[in-house]
């Protein structure tokens, strides 16, 4: 089986020890990183190569940034950024072709969807436009009928079952009806939410804020997602969150999560 992980690292320089520790302990075959907060010239490519991973990255100084790692091979970059707004320079989308353990091609995208707060306003409008641009790209991948995985930090809480308190997050951009409706459109188009497939009752968190004792109180929510094309969804075997890593010293506010696909 091929293990694919996604991890919002919240600053690759600040979390280097935790990231290398996690890679060593969990040994994913493919990794999508978000919020690396490093421009391309400063990205620690050598660090990943020493750990046995080929890597491509789409960076931006101090903000955003996405990367894709593949164990023992170089990811073949397909696309960086989304079409539709040529003036948009935010580093939020990176897509690559990677071989699974049987030598068959997978299409994998690392996604860092805009947060959208505060709302209403231009940041929320940008979020919704970006979600439509992602949908346009996702439709192209569906039309190609290939095993594809769109994973990362979507900054959307899709269902009430995906948050510790509906009332606490009701006014946040992550849970607005428009955000949820845009996410549901992906599912309606044919993508499968891997964690809804494996945990339909919810209660699985991927993010805990640094404030208000969220981690010790387990006040979290699910905003990191795996969307699988029909061919990839047919191969889904397992899905889980490496929750324990959120509790380590100087950890990211997100936990890594992963799926395993049959080869």
UniProtKB/TrEMBL annotation:
Keywords: Hydrolase, Magnesium, Manganese, Metal-binding. The keyword Zinc-finger does not apply. PANTHER family: EXODEOXYRIBONUCLEASE III. Gene3D superfamilies: Endonuclease/exonuclease/phosphatase. One of its GO terms (molecular function) is endonuclease activity. Residues 6-254 form the Endonuclease/exonuclease/phosphatase domain. The keyword Transcription regulation does not apply. The record marks 254 as: Interaction with DNA substrate. Probably binds two magnesium or manganese ions per subunit. The record marks 155 as: Transition state stabilizer. NCBIfam families: exoDNase_III, xth. SUPFAM superfamilies: DNase I-like. It comes from Sphingorhabdus lutea. Belongs to the DNA repair enzymes AP/ExoA family. GO terms for biological process: DNA repair. This is Exodeoxyribonuclease III. The lineage of its organism: Bacteria, Pseudomonadati, Pseudomonadota, Alphaproteobacteria, Sphingomonadales. It comes from the Bacteria. InterPro entries: AP_endonuc_1, AP_endonuclease_F1_BS, Endo/exonu/phosph_ase_sf, Endo/exonuclease/phosphatase, ExoIII-like. Its cofactor is Mg(2+); Mn(2+). Mg(2+) binds at residues 8, 35, 153, 155, 253-254.
């Amino acid at each position: 089986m091929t293990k694919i992980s996604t991890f919002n690292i919240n600053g690759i320089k600040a979390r280097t020890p935790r990231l290398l520790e996690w890679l060593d302990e969990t040994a994913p075959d493919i990794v999508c990183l978000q919020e690396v907060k490093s421009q391309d010239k400063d990205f620690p490519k050598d660090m990943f190569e020493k750990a046995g991973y080929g890597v491509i990255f789409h960076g931006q100084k101090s903000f955003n940034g996405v990367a894709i790692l593949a164990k023992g091979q170089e990811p073949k970059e397909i696309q960086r950024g989304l079409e539709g707004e040529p003036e948009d320079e935010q580093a939020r989308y990176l897509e690559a072709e990677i071989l699974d353990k049987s030598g068959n091609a997978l299409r994998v995208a690392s996604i860092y969807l805009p947060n959208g707060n505060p709302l209403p306003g231009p940041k929320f409008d940008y979020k919704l436009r970006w979600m439509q641009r992602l949908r346009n790209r996702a439709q192209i991948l569906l039309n190609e009928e290939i095993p594809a995985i769109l994973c990362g930090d979507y900054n959307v809480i899709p269902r009430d079952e995906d948050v510790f308190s509906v009332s606490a997050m009701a006014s946040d951009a992550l849970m607005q009806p428009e955000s949820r409706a845009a996410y549901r459109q992906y599912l309606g188009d044919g993508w499968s939410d891997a964690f809804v497939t494996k945990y339909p009752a919810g209660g699985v968190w991927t993010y805990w804020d640094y404030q208000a004792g969220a981690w010790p109180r387990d006040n979290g929510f699910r905003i990191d997602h795996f969307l699988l094309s029909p061919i990839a969804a047919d191969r889904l075997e397992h899905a889980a969150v490496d929750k324990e890593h959120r509790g380590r010293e100087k950890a990211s506010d997100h936990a890594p999560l992963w799926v395993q696909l049959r080869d």
